[in-house]
Specification:
single chain, 477 residues, alpha/beta, TIM Barrel, Immunoglobulin-like, eight-stranded parallel barrel, six-stranded antiparallel sheet, 20 strands, 19% strand, globular, GH13_cat_dom
Length: 477
């Protein structure tokens, strides 16, 4: 944290800072006041982001239970916490399973098990009582800031739950069919429902709805001091809305904006980072032996030519959707999650940790019911801790708006990935075997390095080396 000495004669400088609503003015000339700095591109360069699933993070499923573990996340190098939706969940058409509602369940005790989808919001300014109170959430934000961590909140701009006040007060805020009935979101390619029947589709042709949405977003930044948003299904909302919304938020203070999309024009209109969905699918395909490193090479060349230099990708091996619906890391990457995790930290971008990933979680978290993650630290936790430390402190892994260089070597080998990254005198070399068979390789890079994972010296001198299946090395100079 920055320490500012607030002098009474220069108090105007101090009061212009909008970082902490609870901060009080110093009363004496030499009083030192700790001020949490606004998020900035410098922070984004070396950040690790953590997705917090409050419901499933602990047996209690509360903000308080999560807040007490924020220092653990700091040890993992986390600089940004993305909290999944915190708002009250709709009671009307509440999902019990993928295709049934709680209202379909006759047994009252059985019905209570189903808590609904976080993404069916009944009031954008409310707190889900399942998690605690507004004061509890404020404590989470304050504690994160005290640990040098920023907090962004998952926002659902495409739709609301069926008991949101707008449903009755402003039906014109919603998409309606020819009979004037509010409808759930429709797939524009087929004209059929996506199956998101627990939510009502918002009408972005209505400017009053846009104004109300922006006002609700501004509330959390201005009154609770959050640091930005992760925008759910951002690709289904007009880009011009986001441009205006983000400009409005940035009039309050700098914010960090993550789009659940892989869409360059969102990055050109206010977003700082979007998903590396294509890279994630390439990771999965290489892990299964369906693709080679060439697919990743082609992808990195493509995005280098189509994106702007200040665009940031979020890379991940799992998240809430992947874990619950596509499978655990044990299912998708049973023998090789470590090498793909290391890759997500070392290529240009920002790595994501999902709740439970740090504890090597081996089960799919329930989506509509209460569940819980393990809390036993093991080798994978230590790997994430080590990678987080390197990401935080070595400029050769900078991955934000002023990312370190990326140079591919031994590009004729589609089984082994070798690249070097450099910035400000720091240099890192990644060498990895992305197959289930041993591979011989003579790296084109030479020099004296330290193997970061084993903490052993290593010399590259044009001599052939053997990499075991899925073996990788991160060499630091």
């Amino acid at each position: 944290m920055k320490k500012l000495i607030a002098l009474l004669l220069t108090v105007g400088v101090f009061t212009s800072c909008k970082t902490d609503k609870k901060e009080t003015m110093p009363q004496e000339e030499d009083q030192i006041v700790e001020v949490f700095p606004d998020i900035s591109p410098d922070i984004e360069e070396h950040a690790v982001i953590y997705e917090a699933n409050i419901r499933q993070y602990s047996p209690e499923g509360t903000f308080d239970a999560f807040t007490k573990d924020i220092p653990v996340l700091k040890d993992l190098g986390v600089k940004i916490i993305w909290v999944m939706p915190i708002n009250k969940i709709s009671e009307v058409k509440r999902k019990a399973t993928g295709d049934t509602f709680t209202s379909d369940i006759e047994d009252e005790e059985e019905r209570k098990k189903y808590l609904g989808s976080y993404y069916s919001v009944s009031d954008y300014r409310s707190i889900n009582p399942e998690f605690g109170t507004l004061e509890d959430f404020q404590e989470l934000v304050d504690t994160a800031h005290e640990n040098g961590i920023y907090v962004i909140v998952d926002w659902v701009p495409n739709h609301t739950g069926w008991d949101h006040p707008w449903i009755t007060e402003h039906p014109e805020y919603y998409t309606q069919n020819e009979a004037g009935e509010i409808i759930d979101p429709i797939n524009p390619d087929t004209g059929e429902s996506w199956g998101w029947t627990d939510v009502a589709d918002l009408n972005y042709d209505n400017q009053d709805m846009r104004n109300a949405m922006i006002a609700d977003m501004k509330y959390w930044v201005e009154d609770v001091n959050i640091d930005g948003y992760r925008m759910d299904v951002a690709h289904k909302v007009p880009v011009d809305f986001f441009k205006r919304a983000i400009d409005t938020l940035k009039s309050v203070k700098p914010v960090f904006m993550l789009a659940e999309a892989e869409q360059p024009d969102l990055l050109q209109n206010g977003f700082d980072m979007h998903y590396g969905w294509e890279a994630h699918h390439i990771f999965n395909d290489i892990a299964k032996g369906h693709k080679t490193v060439k697919a990743l090479d082609d992808y990195l060349v493509k995005i280098d030519s189509t994106l702007q230099n200040d665009d940031i990708y979020m890379y991940f091996v799992t998240n809430h959707d992947e874990n619950s619906w596509a499978g655990t890391l044990k299912e998708r990457m049973p023998e090789n999650k470590e090498i793909f995790t290391a890759l997500s930290y070392t290529i240009p971008g920002m790595p994501l940790i999902y709740s439970g990933q740090e504890y090597d979680m081996e089960h799919r978290l329930k989506f509509f019911e209460k569940d819980s993650i393990p809390k036993t630290k093991g080798d994978y936790f230590e790997l994430l801790k080590k990678l987080g430390n390197l990401k935080n402190n070595n400029t050769a892994l900078n991955g934000g708006k002023q990312a370190a260089s990326y140079q591919r070597f031994n590009a004729d080998n589609d089984k082994v990935l070798v690249f070097k990254r450099e910035k400000a005198g720091d240099e890192i070399v990644f060498i990895g075997n992305f197959t289930s068979e041993p591979q011989n390789i003579t790296p084109e890079i030479t020099g004296d390095f330290n193997d970061y994972i084993s903490n052993q010296p290593m010399k590259l001198e044009g001599v052939e080396m053997v990499l075991q299946p899925w073996e990788y090395k991160i060499l630091v100079k």
